[in-house]
Known about the structure:
Blueprint: E1 2-13, E2 16-27, H1 42-49, E3 57-62, E4 65-66, H2 71-77, E5 78-82, H3 93-103, H4 111-117, H5 133-145, E6 151-155, H6 163-167
Parallel strand pairs: 5-6
Antiparallel strand pairs: 1-2, 1-3, 3-4
Amino acid sequence: MHAVTIKDVSKRFGVIKALDHVSLEVRKGEILGLLGPNGAGKTTMMAILTGILTKDSGSVNVLGMNIDTDIFVIKARINSVSGFSGIYAQLTIQEFLWYYAKLYNADTKIIPKLMKLTEIEKRKHELVNSLSSGFKQRVLFARALLNNPDLLLLIILIYCCSMNQQLD
């Protein structure tokens, strides 16, 4: 079984083609990286896989289920880390993970194990907002593992440019 099967998927935003007949397969246990310039459709594809956006055409299967008909079941079996979305300033690391464990209906007993795995246990009483970017990413990674997902999407956006390019 494939973890993800995308066939001939297209998505438009007005006149802009974000995805134009994209197809790919990811086998269970395989790691796939999507690389491309800004505007290539990477974020749009991740938003479709997580059910945030709907595709205009094509088919998407996640963990053997159709994204159009089984999105709620799929959402329970996947998770993602996307930038710093969902960081709550006034919660400690431990409170943050407890909060999400309750949202995911996950066993809170896993929290100490995840904090140890991501090497954040010694800072569990610190406010998430006070952490460096790297430690925030560790907290978000621990959060993404709370529901023991069958599929984990790590969405990392890196933008590089030369000031000369920007000024031309």
